[in-house]
Design goal:
alpha/beta; Rossmann fold; 11 helices; binds NADP nicotinamide-adenine-dinucleotide phosphate
């Protein structure tokens, strides 16, 4: 099986590459600004470049975690980020349609307003941020024009990753340095262990069980960011008293957040043989892999 991972220098992409290699797939990987070994540069906003790389790779499956997922930056720079998160996705879909490749796209719970989560795959989307609107536009383009796709909706992805951007790594670094941190107690969501996400996505994408569908792939729990932060401190033996619960409004961020969010995974349970990892187990696996000394 030939796989192309667009955005392999990111959190999800790097774990997809590891999982695919472990399954003896022939993997081609790309990066954009952060160079990684054995990968080609690719900017999906460039039509010719995207076309050339996809058609010359002749992949069976194209994984597209490549995106600009900084929610606040999207809010303050809508035109710039639309180019990547929407027009870039269109470029990949159009090129993928010229091959027989299946496209696996990563979407988000941010397509919902966060009034009545957790959400199923068929609930009506109503984004409240520019990032959420961009992810929904991309979903619409894919479902209308892609010949062969799988849309994965996920959220609060955590685990070890070399760029160290995710919430849990930033939290651990603060607590290690004895810096206090304010964490929203009113944002409810479904934390997702990235190693487990990659394994499930590879399993789903290599089977024909789901075709041209949307599926939620997250951990099994719904909890607040604050509760997740405290669980992380406990798993790593760090001082949870440095974590202060606050409201999302107090943080005064440019983009609105869906508060009562999270995703339901009944469809995932019926479609996958791999059990979703709980936030508790994911954090313990992280702590076992790199304990804080
Ligand atoms: N992380 C989460 O909690 C979460 C939750 C829900 C959905 N998602 C979705 O899951 C996907 C992956 O997220 P992630 O956490 O892995 O993000 P990430 O770590 O920020 O990785 C994003 C990747 O996209 C690449 N990229 C950025 N601009 C590009 C461009 N113009 N052309 C080609 N590649 C480009 C980046 O390359 P460089 O780093 O080399 O520039 C990087 O490899 C995204 O679509 C995101 O919206 C993530």
């Amino acid at each position: 099986m030939k796989a192309l991972v667009i955005g392999a220098s990111g959190q999800v992409g790097s774990h997809l590459v590891q999982t695919l290699i472990a399954q003896n797939c022939d993997v081609r990987a790309t990066y954009h600004n952060h160079q990684i070994p054995d990968a080609a540069p690719l900017d999906i906003t460039k039509v010719m470049e995207t076309n050339a790389l996809i058609t010359s790779s002749e992949p069976d499956v194209i994984y597209l975690p490549g995106a600009f997922p900084n929610v606040d930056y999207c809010e303050t720079h809508p035109a710039e980020t639309y180019e990547i998160n929407v027009r870039g996705v269109k470029n990949v879909v159009d090129a993928a349609n010229q091959t027989n490749a299946r496209l696996v796209y990563f979407s988000s719970e941010y397509i919902f307003d966060g009034i009545s989560g957790p959400y199923t795959e068929t609930d009506i989307a109503c984004p409240i941020s520019e990032y959420g609107r961009q992810k929904l536009f991309a979903e619409h383009y894919i479902s209308l024009f892609s010949k062969n796709y799988l849309i994965i909706r996920t959220t609060v992805v955590f685990g070890w990753e070399w760029q160290g951007k995710n919430f849990i790594i930033r939290l651990i670094n603060s607590l290690k340095d004895k810096r206090s941190i304010r964490v929203p107690a009113d944002q409810i969501s479904s934390p997702t262990y990235v190693n487990n996400l990659a394994q499930i996505v590879v399993e789903l994408s290599l089977s024909d069980f789901l075709q041209n569908e949307v599926i939620n792939v997250t951990g099994p729990d719904c909890l607040s960011r604050y509760d997740l932060a405290v669980a992380a401190a406990q798993a790593f033996g760090l001082d949870a008293s440095l974590i202060t619960p606050v409201s999302t409004a107090e943080l005064n961020q440019p983009a609105k957040r869906p508060l009562q969010a999270g995703l339901k995974i009944d469809k995932l349970i019926a479609s996958s043989n791999i059990p979703p990892t709980s936030h508790h187990d994911g954090l313990l696996l992280m702590a076992k892999q790199h304990p804080i000394t």
